[in-house]
Fold:
Amino acid sequence: MNEDDEAAGAPVGRRVILGMLGLGAVGIVVGANAQQKVNRALAPLGPVGQVLPAAGGFRYYSVVGGVKRRKPETYRLTVNGLVNKPRTFSFAELGRLPQTRMTKDFQCVTGWRVEDVAWAGVALPDLLDAVGVSPRARAVRFHSFDGVYTESLTLDQARRRDVLVATGMLGGPVEHDHGGPVRLYVAPMYGYKSLKWLGGIELTADVVPGYWEERGYDVDAWVGQSNGRDDEPT
Structure:
């Protein structure tokens, strides 16, 4: 599916497909309800909405003519909203910030997971410190450069050391199909919170429900309904 489909009268299908790509789902079972929501979202799409296996145990939702690729050389990440110093970071500038590495599972609310994935990038607290957070900020909103998918965290959640602006994955760069060149990784939450193709970070006064929350998913997506405070990297 490409941009022409929207003009041809299928804008809802396009939004759903891009949203599914943003999900980048990998995880563990939490019940049939989540899978039923995905099935309902994909039902109008026919074969385009099928889940396909991929290397390393990951799965992708298939799209014909999907999200436009961006090269690291031209990539830009905009950080704005309730910050003291709004700023746009190049890929190289992200690499000059303090770097964090971790190895953690990536888990999907729909019932599958990939264990021991190596991640690398900038811990979100370090990025927020680089721009200065306004006292009025209470939440962080993330925008995908697919133009459709969004996610949000509370400021306390975003301050965790295991929330990563990921520039590396699986021992190499984040590939396009995994949401590269830069994606979000929220270690203690289900995969739909780990937004792919990260293009913007916005500090807000309140949590703004993301693409999947608007379709019935939990705003707080702790894996296994934990309190989300364990096993943070240093």
